[in-house]
Amino acid sequence: MKKTLAFAVAGCGFLAAANANSVADTDWEQARLDVKVAVSHGSTADTYNVSAIISDLRTGKVLSEPHLVVKGGQPAKVQVGTTDSSFEFTVTVAAAGDTAVYTAAVKRDGAVVGAQSATLAVMH
User: Fold this and answer.
1) Which of 15, 24, 36, 91 is deepest in the core (most CB within 10 A)?
2) Among 84, 33, 39, which Cα is nearest to 62's?
3) How many whole angstroms separate alpha carbon 101 and alpha carbon 97?
4) Cα–Cα dist 97/110, whole Å
């Protein structure tokens, strides 16, 4: 039995929202993922907002929109999808607060079938 996943693990982060709409397990399993990630300064000097939009390139359907609040230097990890088909990413904002390292993996049946990483500028 497949189970839909949506969770975040972070040293001091929390998941504010994961799915904005109803998404079926088959949406994840058939998706060709498009991921947009943004990092900006939070409401206090030591926090940062991390947001992502994960959608299907073919249909344009938004599959998940996780939003997290994290502290600099502490990794935040998000995993969304199903137990058979998932997307996970980790974002760590540099202690200086000017950049963030992003790494991601797409998994099908537990095996990584795609991965990427990038250094992102933190927006003001």
Assistant:
1) 91
2) 33
3) 11
4) 33
User: Cα–Cα distance between 35 and 63 in angstroms, integer?
Assistant: 10
Dist CA 45 CA 40 (whole Å): 11
| Architecture field, domain 4-121 | Sandwich (2.60)
CB 39 within 8 A of CB 119: no
Q: Measured between alpha carbons, how far is residue 40 from residues 12, 18, 31, 46, 63 in Å?
A: 16, 18, 28, 11, 22
The residues spanned by each domain of the chain are 4-121
